[in-house]
Amino acid sequence: MKIYTRTGDAGKTAVVGGRVDKDDIRVEAYGTIDELNSFVGESITRMSPEKHADLISHFTEIQHELFDAGGDLAQVGKERQYKVTGDMVTRLEEWIDQYESELAPLRRFILPGGTSLSSSIHICRTVSRRAERCVVSLCKSEETNEEVRRYLNRLSDYFFTVARVANTRSGVSDVEYIRGGQAFS
């Protein structure tokens, strides 16, 4: 099979159930999820198998779910079979609760940084938020799986939490935003 087909040279791309313009909000949404998936993979390469075995397992599962999310968004037409469910959102919440037990209470806003792993996970967090904004726009104009929006929202919370865990496990403090007062009590 050749990797190039030339079918997209006119500015259209195939989705499940038809073809759309390459700058369609649907393509932007699942393309941003694909970008996020790449950053998740990059974060895995920074993880120590000894110190981060749980995160490696979770991030690998998340990569598969992100692929599912992109597939859900790439469907147009009447018949749709979605893979992203509310159970995935609930599981992310359980993981967040589990990891919060490793962390000191949050008193101030924090800046991305500390360790290189934490910084790369913060990139995942921000790209997840951008993907969520794209899906919000898509949901306003097209029918699609709205569970993807909820999943991305919770996923960014998960990334925030595990970015802090990455610092904690390395004995590095979070970088606090010092120009503001205490934000959390």
Automatic annotation (TrEMBL):
InterPro entries: CblAdoTrfase-like, CblAdoTrfase-like_sf, PduO-typ. GO terms for biological process: cobalamin biosynthetic process. It comes from Baia soyae. GO terms for molecular function: ATP binding; corrinoid adenosyltransferase activity. This is Corrinoid adenosyltransferase. Pfam families: Cob_adeno_trans (PF01923). Pathway: Cofactor biosynthesis; adenosylcobalamin biosynthesis; adenosylcobalamin from cob(II)yrinate a,c-diamide: step 2/7. PANTHER family: CORRINOID ADENOSYLTRANSFERASE, CORRINOID ADENOSYLTRANSFERASE MMAB. Residues 3-166 form the Cobalamin adenosyltransferase-like domain. It catalyses: 2 cob(II)alamin + reduced [electron-transfer flavoprotein] + 2 ATP = 2 adenosylcob(III)alamin + 2 triphosphate + oxidized [electron-transfer flavoprotein] + 3 H(+); 2 cob(II)yrinate a,c diamide + reduced [electron-transfer flavoprotein] + 2 ATP = 2 adenosylcob(III)yrinate a,c-diamide + 2 triphosphate + oxidized [electron-transfer flavoprotein] + 3 H(+). Belongs to the Cob(I)alamin adenosyltransferase family. Keywords: ATP-binding, Cobalamin biosynthesis, Nucleotide-binding, Transferase. Homotrimer. Its EC number is 2.5.1.17.
